[in-house]
Specification:
This protein is mainly α. The chain is built from 5 helices and no strands. It is elongated and about 65 Å long. The protein starts with a helix and ends in a 27-residue tail after the last helix.
Length: about 140
């Protein structure tokens, strides 16, 4: 009996979870979640962002306060994004997203009648992934 598409998709999911890019992404995500320095910065950022939102909703907007709070939010964002743990996590996230984009593109090609074994791993430049807006692959 042939395996059905759903079962094969589950096997693909398992294969993705065994891929080095996924493993790295998962480990670095756990490290980011447990890094107290990074989590404190993220907490400060969230509080500052909420304060900025509150200031912007006040009936008597104070442009100077809003500008100061916006600068604080931007500073904390940059601090969080430049944290070494966050930097490594974001690199790993880009790698896993590239893998998933390739997988999705190959599946889309196959669903549109192309040979999945010869379909390129990457979509042509400018490809949105939506075949309804596509003029065709080169």
């Amino acid at each position: 009996m042939e395996k059905d598409v759903i079962q094969l998709t589950r096997e693909l999911g398992e294969a993705i979870q065994k891929d080095d890019r996924y493993i790295k992404f998962d480990i670095l995500g756990q490290q980011a979640d447990t890094d107290t320095t990074l989590q404190n910065i993220i907490g400060e950022f969230n509080i500052a962002r909420m304060e900025l939102s509150r200031l912007m909703k006040e009936p008597e907007e104070n442009a100077e306060k809003i500008q100061e709070q916006d600068a604080k939010v931007r500073e904390l964002y940059e601090k969080a994004m430049s944290n070494p743990v966050m930097t490594e996590f974001n690199k790993a996230k880009e790698e896993i997203n590239a893998l998933l984009k390739s997988v999705n593109y190959i599946i889309s090609c196959a669903a549109n009648g192309e040979d999945p074994m010869t379909c390129p791993e990457k979509a042509p430049e400018g490809c949105t992934g939506s075949c309804s807006t596509c003029g065709g692959c080169g």
